[in-house]
Design goal:
Helix content: over 70%
Radius of gyration: 18 Å
CATH class: Mainly Alpha
Strand content: under 5%
Distance between the termini: 19 Å
Order of helices and strands: HHHEHEHHHHHHHEHEH
Structural class: mainly alpha
Length: 323
């Protein structure tokens, strides 16, 4: 099994590196072509940080492991809110200034509820997958509209993205990093899926549990790095906005892909254990970050609660991970 463990570690490392290169190349290309930083941030950066989850979902589904793809989608959302935002808030408390983030949080709640209702029959079929991917198209249309119709200076997130989107790359350099990042993303995703499935079989646990734990953590590493870096640069809206956007991509795209490529039954524990926890954490994020009576804020105490919730969830998985 040591070969799978080495492959898993290599897959994670390459995944983080290639996701960063892919986002840098895509964002640099768009900026060179005159696209506004806010639109780049809301679309390309949001898509890029979820690219590892999407590619893992495609490969796992094509190889007949839809449970790993489903676990990756739900587990990544749990990891993003509980571990990533919790850890980031422990480092630097997060204040929410952006009206865009405040508008996206209720949308994320709605998407979460719809996804739960779709899976209540314990099946993720082709129609479910098409509806989720259709929702992705609607969401992308919405964020493009927001990006095109939000003037500079109106929302603090615009200034934060303007400072972060690379402006020193030529079009040729950007396209080069875009291509390299995409190729390595695909290769590292294949390596990661192979290693994760092998480890699951060795330990006698389901692909779902591996997706909820190891794979979800690994594919969420780009969001962790981006959120902490943004918080340290006093860009809290990007830190929270990246997680909210990534979670919407995960539910609409990452969860929709196995419905299209490998439709079939859903483990009952997804409905009784995983999705309720994911929903509760999403509601908690809304209550902490929305700011009903002023500016929203995730302080260090709330960050500690989120990290403790993640540890509790992993403990629950340990005692319920029966294949």
């Amino acid at each position: 099994m040591w070969i799978q463990l080495v492959a898993l570690a290599a897959g994670f490392g390459l995944l983080v590196w290639s996701a960063d290169r892919f986002v840098m190349g895509a964002a640099g290309t768009a900026r060179t072509l005159g696209v506004s930083p806010l639109l780049i941030g809301l679309t390309i950066v949001g898509f890029g940080t979820s690219a590892p989850e999407m590619l893992v979902s495609v490969i796992a589904s094509l190889q007949g492991n839809p449970g790993l793809a489903i676990g990756n989608a739900i587990g990544s959302n749990i990891t993003n809110v509980a571990l990533i935002l919790g850890t980031t808030a422990l480092v630097v408390p997060l204040s929410v200034h952006s009206r865009i983030v405040r508008r996206e949080l209720p949308i994320l709640i709605g998407i979460t509820v719809v996804a739960y209702l779709m899976l209540r029959d314990q099946t993720l079929d082709f129609v479910d997958g098409m509806l989720l991917l259709g929702g992705l198209a609607v969401m992308l249309g919405y964020v493009v509209y927001v990006g095109l119709n939000t003037r500079d200076g109106i929302d603090p997130m615009a200034a934060e993205y303007a400072a972060e989107i690379p402006s020193d790359l030529s079009l040729r350099q950007s396209l080069w990093w875009l291509a390299i990042g995409l190729v390595v993303l695909v290769a590292s995703s294949r390596l990661l899926v192979w290693a994760a499935v092998g480890i699951a079989h060795e330990f006698g646990v389901s692909d779902l549990v591996i997706g909820l734990t190891i794979v979800a953590l690994g594919t969420s590493l780009p969001e962790l790095a981006a959120s902490i870096a943004s918080a340290l640069k006093n860009e809290p809206d990007i830190a929270i906005g990246n997680v909210v956007g990534s979670n919407m991509f995960n539910l609409l795209a990452v969860l929709g892909i196995p419905g299209i490529l490998s439709p079939g039954p859903v483990d009952p524990q997804v409905l009784t254990r995983d999705m309720p926890i994911m929903t509760a954490l999403t509601v908690a994020l809304l209550l902490m970050a929305y700011g009903f009576q002023g500016e929203g804020r995730i302080n260090r105490f709330e960050g500690a609660l989120l990290v403790a919730a993640y540890a509790g969830y992993q403990t629950l998985l340990y005692f319920t991970a029966v294949k």
